[in-house]
């Protein structure tokens, strides 16, 4: 079995988290990498999405909720400390990255005591989405990541994200009802949830050795902060600064 990495890193700035998320892919690892992380309250839109179609901007401004953009596609998500983000980076070329992530998340949720099913761009329990999925490819690998609602309430998600627009477009989010583990009656705590995800990833990918961020990953994170994630136009419309 492959020996991969379980990166242990924590940043307090959501822009730093998004930059590190992308940096893990950009350094082109030779074996699988898993990173579990949480963000402060924010809204994160997909790479090509339009904020006005996805986000209740006035509510975000009123409540001081920042709106940021990530490098991957997929739909807009709400982040807060009650939501666990799961990043999986695989060396390329790799087939069906979302299938691999879906297997990891499905096994973890099953271990926690619910019966999940993989549906449209996410993992569901009954009719409610528990996890969303997104993917980003380069020539040397791919990144698949997920948001797992652990304690975040569905009402809080709906406060800052728009309903499905009447004129759907290809890059629009696919809106579904959501419900967290807590809203399904499970409150295992974050250590238990993280342990379940790590165990599921190890079963699928082989041994994952805990380690801190590498110098190359931190250097790439700093570069991405300069060209993208600390650059307001990146978050507004996807424009990045010249390196």
UniProtKB/TrEMBL annotation:
GO terms for molecular function: ligase activity. It holds the Pfam family LplA-B_cat. Residues 28-209 form the BPL/LPL catalytic domain. InterPro entries: aa-tRNA-synth_II/BPL/LPL, BPL_LPL_catalytic, LipoylTrfase_LipoateP_Ligase. Pathway: Protein modification; protein lipoylation via exogenous pathway; protein N(6)-(lipoyl)lysine from lipoate: step 2/2. Keywords: Ligase. This is Lipoate--protein ligase family protein.
